[in-house]
Amino acid sequence: MHSARLSRGAILATTLLAVTFAWTEAAAAEVSSAAEPVMTGSAEIFPSKLPRSQSAPSTLRLGFTSEAPDTHAAPELSKTAFEISRNVTLRTAGLPSCSLAKLLSTYANPRRTCAGSLVGQGRVVSEITLPGEPTVTVEGRLLAFFAFAEERPRILAQVSSTAPLSLTYVIPFRVDEDHGAFGSSLVVPKMRNIQGQCRRGVTNCFSQPYTLKGIYAHISDFELSLHRRFAHDGRRQSVVNARCPAPADRAEAVFPLANVSLSYSSGASLSSVSTGRCRIAA
Questions:
Q1: Largest CA distance in the chain
Q2: For 205-232, what is the mean pLDDT?
Q3: Burial bucket for residue 48 (CB in 10 Å: 0-12, 13-18, 19+)
Q4: 30/162 same-domain check
């Protein structure tokens, strides 16, 4: 009898341990889920009235917001991708290429040295933490330039910030061809490798920011507007061109305009599809 009571007690203890362990695992899963980043992607195409078949010069706006819900801080990104609708095409043939060296130069103004390569603008809000220093929120003006490097087209987004930290860094988007609903994409596969430096002549900075990996990857708000008209082979061209994919019996359409995907150094990956709305131009 004594042995039987011990067995029942052992079984009860094991059962309680299993329940406790299961509850702990569930609680940990809830905490892990709650701690995942929160992101919102956005995309717009202008004008909203577009041709049905042939594409017309347009402006494409892309963006995202990203934060950790528990601290409202900007988690570190490992990859950023904008997949763009097949109804929107990017044309860069005929544009001069601007080099990364020119955009990181402390002596040259890229608006002058790379004026022919300028294809867009925007803004970036990021959080930068230096060793032994508190986190600083920095807002920067973005200028986008076309570049052809390593046998592929790129969009180099130069970001310049002022107070409280005067920095210049470049977010290098690779232009890829996609399949399915999305015809092209802008991708930064290694956000931690973004290079930057202090702006010339400032004192409230630090010596070698390009040696600190990941300091430019904590982005909380990103906006990029692509638009450029230029001449090539005697014809007027546009970097962004779009059409309205409305059926033959309809005068308007709603379609997936862009899929914004963010990957984080924590291992989390999130995406958000933004829809476009258009009407057939008369």
A1: 101
A2: 87
A3: middle
A4: no
Number of domains in the chain: 2
Residue 76 main-chain phi, psi, to 5 deg: -75, 130
Within 35-165, residue ranges assigned H as helices are: 100-104, 110-113
Same structural domain, 22 and 73: no
Enumerate residues 6+ apart whose C-beta is below 8 A from 37. 66, 67, 68, 69, 75, 262, 264, 266, 268, 270
Give the count of beta carbons closer than 10 Å to the beta carbon of residue 22.
10
**Looking at the predicted structure, is the pLDDT value of residue 27 above 60?**
no
Shared-domain flag, residues 29 and 111: no
**Looking at residue 204, what is its pLDDT?**
62
At residue 210, the 3 state secondary structure works out as: helix
| CA 4 to centroid of chain Cα atoms | 64
Residue 114 backbone dihedrals phi, psi, to 5 degrees: -125, 35
Provide the sign of the torsion angle of the four alpha carbons 25, 31, 36, 39, taken in this order.
positive
CA angle 53, 57, 62 (to 5 degrees): 105
- Given this model, what pLDDT does residue 243 score? 97
